[in-house]
Amino acid sequence: MTTALVYLVVMVLVAAVVFLLASLLFGRGEEMEPLPPGASPTRLPSEDITPDDVRDLRFQQVLRGYKMSEVDWVLDRLAAEVEQLRERVADLESARDPA
Predict the structure, then answer these.
(1) DSSP characters for 60-93?
(2) CA 61 – CA 49 distance, rounded (Å)
(3) For residue 16, what are the CA distances in angstroms to 9, 21, 82, 94?
(4) Which DSSP helix (H) or strand (E) runs through 9?
(5) What distances in angstroms separate CA 98 from CA 43, 84, 85, 88, 89, one per listed residue?
(6) What is the pTM for the complete model shown?
């Protein structure tokens, strides 16, 4: 019984030493400092959103999926962009066909 306990304690100590050495040697692995609370990594250009911009979107992960405020913001921006494009298409079609 004591032998198993000694092995367990030694194993935990070895794991702790390896973890500490690895964390000191490699650090946290971040090249930039973490975002402040409430900040978002979600970015879109101010105008002329392209399909690649939409494909490259990344949302902040929270406990139950993605952060709802970020997703709502992106959907509002995309809806505005689609609305502008539809208005422009309608203007161009009406200018092309005056009858």
Answers:
(1) -EETTEE-HHHHHHHHHHHHHHHHHHHHHHHHHH
(2) 23
(3) 11, 9, 55, 72
(4) helix 2-26
(5) 40, 21, 20, 16, 14
(6) 0.48
Report how far residue 82's alpha carbon sits from residue 86's, in angstroms, rounded to the nearest whole number.
6
Q: Are 66 and 35 in contact (CB under 8 A)?
A: no
pLDDT in tens, 49-94: 788 888 887 777 777 777 888 888 888 888 888 888 889 999 999 9
Q: Which of 21, 23, 41, 24 is nearest to 32 (CA)?
A: 41
- For residue 49 the two structure tokens come to 């959103």
The number of residues in the chain equals 99
Q: CA of 54: how far to CAs of 42, 49, 70, 71, in Å? A: 11, 8, 13, 12
Per DSSP, 53 falls in state H
Contact assessment for residue 57 and residue 44, using Cβ atoms and an 8 Å cutoff: yes
